[in-house]
Design goal:
Blueprint (H helix, E strand, L loop, with lengths): L4 E10 L2 E11 L4 E5 L6 H9 L6 E6 L2 E2 L5 H6 L2 E4 L11 H12 L4 H6 L2 H20 L15 H14 L4 E5 L7 H17 L3 E5 L3 H7 L2 E6 L2 E6 L1 H6 L1 H8 L1 H6 L2
Parallel strand pairs: 3-8, 3-9, 6-7, 7-8
Antiparallel strand pairs: 1-2, 1-4, 4-5, 9-10
């Protein structure tokens, strides 16, 4: 089976600083891959290299076997890659449902002329999109807020809306940067359960940066650990928790806490 995402000996330099050094990994279709490491390890830079928002200095990035190294971000988006950010970019004047419908519209576009003329096909597509949007809001316990302007949401709810919008787009690969930051433990548990359920049902591959180790250990199939721009360990959550190198470099007592 061809991996969904491959990074081969990827390096990213900013002047004389090596933010990512000789990073290689392969993510299977439908896999949920965790990416962890201390601050400054190069995790977000690695994601930015996949999405084309930083330039790869050396190495190769491929999606489904197609080389996408240093392609423009809007081209990479068209290949079926989406991402969420640690700080949510929402359409503040639009409702929660309307924000999620933006995601639905990415995989079910209606020609402008058909929408303008309100053709029967356009009306059916609109009704279907609304049904899909409401269903994903329900998955994230956001139905009571569907008509609220996104700008009025507290941060935890805004993060849940961002996850719902990203998953509604049904990308092949979704890159998530700290998806549960700002959430309470119960909110994080509920959101991660919805993410896993939707990703599995839609065969969406996830690459997730997350500092909440309890969440990461419950979500990821495989965990990749970075330090100083390089990969230092990889394995199942249980294997990573037991790794002396990982504990020394990053987890410390969190490895013990997350296991209980």
């Amino acid at each position: 089976m061809t991996p969904r995402l491959v990074l081969e000996h990827v390096a990213v330099h900013f002047g004389g600083l090596a933010a990512v050094r000789d990073l290689s990994l392969a993510v299977r279709p439908g896999e949920i891959r965790g990416l962890i490491g201390p601050n400054g390890a190069g995790k977000t830079t690695a994601i930015n290299a996949v999405t084309g928002t930083v330039r790869v200095t050396a190495g190769r990035v491929a999606l489904d076997g197609q080389d996408i190294t240093n392609h423009a971000p809007h081209h990479i988006s068209r290949y079926g890659i989406a991402r969420t950010f640690q700080h949510v970019e929402a359409f503040g004047d639009m409702s929660v449902l309307e924000n999620v419908l933006v995601g639905v519209g990415r995989h079910a576009p209606v020609p402008l002329w058909a929408a303008a003329l309100a053709t029967p096909g356009a009306r059916r597509a609109e009704a279907s999109a609304r049904e899909q949007g409401l269903a994903i809001l329900d998955d994230f316990a956001l139905l009571p807020y569907r008509d609220e302007p996104a700008a009025d949401l507290p941060f935890g709810l805004l993060k849940r809306m961002d996850l719902a919008r990203a998953l509604a787009a049904r990308p092949k690969l979704l890159l998530m940067d700290e998806p549960t930051s700002g959430m309470s433990e119960s909110e994080a548990d509920s959101a991660i359960a919805a993410v896993r359920r939707i990703a599995e049902s839609g065969a969406i591959t996830l690459l997730v940066i997350e500092h909440n180790m309890r969440v990461m250990m419950a979500l990821a199939d495989t965990v990749t650990v970075m330090q100083n721009g390089a990969l230092i360990a990889e394995g199942t959550p249980a294997e990573v928790q037991r790794s002396a190198a990982v504990i020394d470099a990053y987890l410390g007592e969190e490895a013990v806490d997350a296991a209980h």
